[in-house]
Design a protein that fits this description.
Elements lengths: L11 H7 L10 E5 L4 H13 L2 E8 L10 H11 L2 E6 L8 H12 L10 H13 L4 H4 L15 H10 L16 H17 L4 H22 L7 H6 L2 H11 L8 H11 L5 E5 L2 E6 L2 E6 L2
Parallel strand pairs: 1-2, 2-3
Antiparallel strand pairs: 4-5, 5-6
Helix pairs in contact: 1-2, 2-7, 5-8, 5-9, 9-11, 11-12
């Protein structure tokens, strides 16, 4: 490398980007999810420069013929920095929902508190993907900033600039441009089209919208937590946004109910129907002004 990353943050671009990151205090133990791509390699470089006590984790999904070679990008850097590298090999079978299943396999293999290299561009794409899926404020809030995602204020172009500045050639994963994956079409087609239509960079706008919606979501969730969702009268008289949230929280195990299910439960609370199916072999039934969650049959 023409610029030695062991200089511990002496490069001016490292110093500049670090001021926008949300790492915990220096010397904190941290597990990093590093694929070898530009974003995750930047995560590694910035975390090291910040002074974290790092363990690097790499997951090989075996989805590409040469995927086992991705670690060859990471190893020289971890060896130079004296960092432990843990490689996880997982098996993801071809078939439907490949992207989601690969993500689940990756997170199952990684430590629960692993940091990821998601950027502002990823955040904007997540907002659009969740919008296309009909999400409410929770989904449109996208990823929550914090220690787990310390690069959310950085742009993808900046992570590439950092790798180039330190003479690191990141992995170029061809699956990241495969149009059969929704995120790739959002990234490669929808975002550029929206930039063109609006005549501006929409990423900061979407990130700001996510931040605002997250604040509003958290506020409404806090208000909704004061409601007893089993008290039919309280639920029926509550403002609709709070009532919906109280019901969704009540029935969120193992999975949150859909909008139609929530509306059926509110109809029970209002006395419009006596009971309704809420999925999973369960129903909500009203009796003496109380809502009861019971097993059907």
């Amino acid at each position: 490398m023409s610029h030695d990353v062991t200089d511990h943050g002496e490069h001016p671009l490292l110093i500049s980007l670090l001021s926008h990151c949300t790492f915990p205090a220096p010397t904190t133990s941290a597990s990093l999810a590093v694929s070898g791509g530009a974003d995750s390699m930047a995560l590694l470089l910035l975390a090291y420069a910040h002074g974290l006590d790092i363990t690097v984790h790499h997951v090989d999904h075996q989805l590409r013929e040469q995927s086992h070679r991705d670690v060859e990008v990471i190893t020289p850097v971890t060896e130079r920095l004296g960092l432990e590298l843990v490689v996880h090999v997982v098996s993801v079978e071809p078939g439907p929902n490949l992207e989601a299943r690969a993500r689940d396999a990756r997170y199952d293999a990684l430590p629960a508190d692993a940091m990821t290299g998601h950027t502002a561009d990823d955040q904007a794409e997540t907002v659009l993907i969740n919008l296309l899926r009909g999400a409410g404020t929770r989904g449109l809030s996208a990823m929550r900033p914090g220690h787990r995602r310390p690069l959310l204020a950085l742009r993808r172009s900046e992570t590439r600039q950092l790798c180039a500045a330190l003479d690191i050639v990141p992995v170029d994963d061809e699956t990241n441009t495969d149009p059969k994956f929704l995120r790739n079409r959002v990234r490669g087609e929808l975002v550029p089209l929206m930039n063109d239509v609006s005549q501006r960079d929409i990423v900061p706008l979407l990130v700001r919208a996510a931040d605002m919606l997250r604040d509003e979501h958290d506020f409404l969730e806090e208000l909704a937590s004061t409601l007893d969702p089993t008290d039919a009268r309280v639920l029926a008289e509550a403002p609709l946004p709070l009532a919906r949230r109280a019901v969704r929280t009540w029935l969120s195990h193992p999975y949150p109910p859909d909008v139609a299910t929530v509306e059926r439960v509110l109809a029970v609370a209002r006395g419009e129907i006596l009971a309704c199916d809420v999925g999973g072999g369960r129903e909500v039934r009203r009796s003496k002004q109380r809502l009861h969650l019971t097993t059907i049959g």
